[in-house]
Amino acid sequence: VNLAAIEEFDRVNERYEFLNSQRDDLLKAENTLLDIIDDLDKVMIKDFTNTFKIIKENFKITFKELFKGGTADLKLTDPDNILTTGIEIIASPPGKKLTTISLLSGGEKTFTAISLLFAILKSKPVPFCILDEVEAALDDVNVDSFGKYVQGLKDKTQFIIITHKKKTMEYADVLYGITMQESGVSKLVSVKLTDHEEVL
Questions:
Q1: How much is the average pLDDT of 161-170?
Q2: Angle at 114 between CA 109 and CA 119, to 5 degrees
């Protein structure tokens, strides 16, 4: 007869009950986390669906305005699985058959991407936006359209545009340039065009 068995049982039973309570706490925490994830998924699906509809409509309008015609659309690649779906861009500039963006020329792809960017900015305006040579692949006519469109959005968003295109610079309120008069010494040059327009 093991006289220490009762004490051993009490010790092991206490340990068992402690571990059992820990396991129950973990299961409760897991269920709580799964419920939170499920709620977040529902919110993300709802918000994404609503935002996608707004951007889709804005994209159709913006594309027509920038290209001065044509049609464009955004489609979900897997509408049944919103959280894992991709987005397909369909663009048809004036005089071209409706096609995917991969079949467009470099300039058309750039202008389509700019249209999408402006559609997103229209959907949710931001106070500040930096564009780094986004219009580099565009010809002068399309750069002119780009400049006019930025002018139309500048009341809601302040744009900083890094560019080498003279046509884009014509639409700026202030120009900043970097010059190197001496080797290895950079100097900032700025011109406020609104002041010069008033003088003229």
A1: 90
A2: 125
Q: Identify the residue whose tokens are 């006019």.
A: 148
Burial string for 21-38 (b: 16+ CB within 10 Å, else e) reads: eeeeeeeeeeeeeeeeee
The pLDDT of residue 129 is above 50? yes
Per the CB < 8 A criterion, the answer to whether 152 and 118 are in contact is no
Per-residue pLDDT tens digits for 167-176: 999 889 899 9
Tokens found for residue 99: 């096609």
Round the average pLDDT of the chain to a whole number and report it.
88
**pTM (2 d.p.):** 0.76
Confidence at residue 62, expressed as pLDDT on a 0 to 100 scale? 94
SS (H, E, C) the chain: CCCCHHHHHHHHHHHHHHHHHHHHHHHHHHHHHHHHHHHHHHHHHHHHHHHHHHHHHHHHHHHHHHHCCCEEEEEECCCCCCCCCCEEEEEECCCCCCEEHHHCCHHHHHHHHHHHHHHHHHHCCCCEEEEECCCCCCCHHHHHHHHHHHHHHCCCCEEEEECCCHHHHCCCCEEEEEEEEECCEEEEEEEEHHHHHHHC
Rg (CA), the chain: 30
CA proximity to 149, closest of 51, 61, 41: 61
